Amino acid sequence: CSRDWSSDVCSSDLTSWPGRTAANVSLTNNRDLAAISNGEAQVYREQAGVDAEGRPRHWVTSKTPIKDDAGTVTHVVTASYDITDLVRADESVRASERQLSAILDAIPISVVLKDRDRRYLMMNRATEKMFGVNAKDIIGQTVWPGRTAEQSEQAAERDVQAITTGHQMVYEENITGKDRDGRPIYWMTAKTAIKEIGRAHV
């Protein structure tokens, strides 16, 4: 694409592309002009578009200006990398995470997830209801509020044991807790290490 916008050389070509709207053309032209005026490469992530057959696609697009010997921008090179498969994979993962979250929230059992540094990563609604806590106040913390130093140390030891052995550990808690209404509760706890490449959660 040349920089001679007064003749609409580029915009006349763009309007012939399948699926391109006036808004698409205007956005592309503005990005070309930004590369020309800045004289620097610009990288954008296209939110959506269609290919020659009208199928929805996603691209990462870069705009790179070409300069003459005097340093004046004469052309803009547009390079687009199709990331549709990556976007769809990401959407699929997010959908799976939403489904898993819905399942965990539907069961009447307290479920929490920590990383190997013992930071809380998630908890389901049953946990919030059982212990009268709010997940946003716990996520990222390493110590459960209201626990004594002895209780926290015991929980830490069991977390480490589950992570280092890789085996599920099931035991009856020897401490008494209270629900959000102040009633005493007793529970049996299972700690299971979740293995990933190079790390583990519990």
Please describe the structure with a list of short key phrases separated by commas or semicolons.
26% strand, two-stranded antiparallel sheet, 202 residues, three-stranded antiparallel beta sheet, alpha+beta, 13 strands, single chain, elongated, 6 helices
Largest sheet strand order? 1-4-5
**Helix count from the secondary structure assignment:** 6
Helix/strand order: HHEEEEEHEEHHHEEEEEE
- The outline comes out as elongated
- The percent range for strand residues is 25-35%
What is the C-alpha radius of gyration, as a whole number of Å? 28 Å
User: Termini, distance in Å?
Assistant: 55 Å
Low-confidence stretches: 4-9, 11-16
Structural class: alpha+beta
Approximate helicity band: 25-40%
Oligomer designation: single chain
SS elements, strand count: 13
Largest sheet: 3 strands, antiparallel
Query: What number is the mean pLDDT?
Result: 79
